[in-house]
Amino acid sequence: MQFRLTAAQERAMDALMTGASVTAAAKVAGVNRNTVSDWLNRHTGFVAEYGRRRRELWSALRGRLSALATKAVDVLEAELDEAGPKRLDAAIHVLRATSLYDAGDREVAVEFAGTVMEAIAALPAEYKATVVMAVEERLQALGIV
Q1: Which pTM does this prediction carry?
Q2: Where are the chain's structural domains?
Q3: Do residues 47 and 40 make contact, with C-beta atoms less than 8 angstroms apart?
Q4: Which end of the chain is more exposed for a tag (fewer CB within 10 A), N or C?
């Protein structure tokens, strides 16, 4: 059910849906910051419409992120063959956003670790130490080890 909002409330809502702060949304709407805060906390219609629009927005974004997951997995596969930490970081962020990276599935984690170790083992000796050190640094930066 959609609630009818005033013009100022619509402007504030649109700003909030694009990630604006309460202060920025108030400025766009031409009202005081406290007014937008009150709408978000006490105005039943505004709160309901805000929740409905956020659910709609997140649903659309989840669909887009899920579609990117396949590409992210492709990047991870390519990364095993060719070094590129920036591409790997991007792939990990997409996988985390879709809850695939931190799925908590021990078997998947063990299998992935085994694949990485096999790829490192297949490297020429002069590259192994550098790659292992880079992997360890990245894991530390991610807070994994």
Answers
A1: 0.49
A2: 7-60, 62-141
A3: yes
A4: N
